[in-house]
Amino acid sequence: MSFGFGDYNFGNQPFGQPVKPRVFVSYHHENDQWDYDKFSGLFSDTYDIITDTSVDRNIESHETEYQMRRIREDYIKGSSVTVVLCGKESYKRKFIDWEICATLNKEHGLLGIILPDNKAGYDGKYTVPGRLYDNIQSGYANFVHWTDNPTELVTAIQLARELSKETTLIRNGRDTMKRNLS
After folding, report:
1. What is the pTM of this model?
2. Fold exhibited by the domain 20-169
3. Nearest to 94 by CA among 10, 7, 5, 176
């Protein structure tokens, strides 16, 4: 068991060493696995910045409510920020929608990261999951482009944590996706 105070952890970390934020990473497992592996390697392993708590296998049930409860209780719980890796087809995935929904229900920080394959349209806008978009627009979620720079990521995560204190800005009214879009 560990007890935290401010930015210091008096349980698992040596005295005075900053606590790593616990981050849940939501991503399209089929299309964006390479980006997730790079993200995890750069920021979890190499720089020791985050602790990854992502869902590593399917939840064995076809019942939507059960799956959402498992995501909320087994994966989102204990994290402080959900990072959504936004590839070009992430908006089509029901699990990403559900993970964002669970994050908002827990009033945790929300950070969208645009992946390099997600190119801006003619209007200069990027395609992101709808529930993430709603919260970027309201000012609750933070949004950045992919970076290999650990300082930039730490800053983005800290801002997402700060923004999460403004719970009146949460926009979680969309119906949850029932299936993946084709």
Report:
1. 0.83
2. Rossmann fold (3.40.50)
3. 176
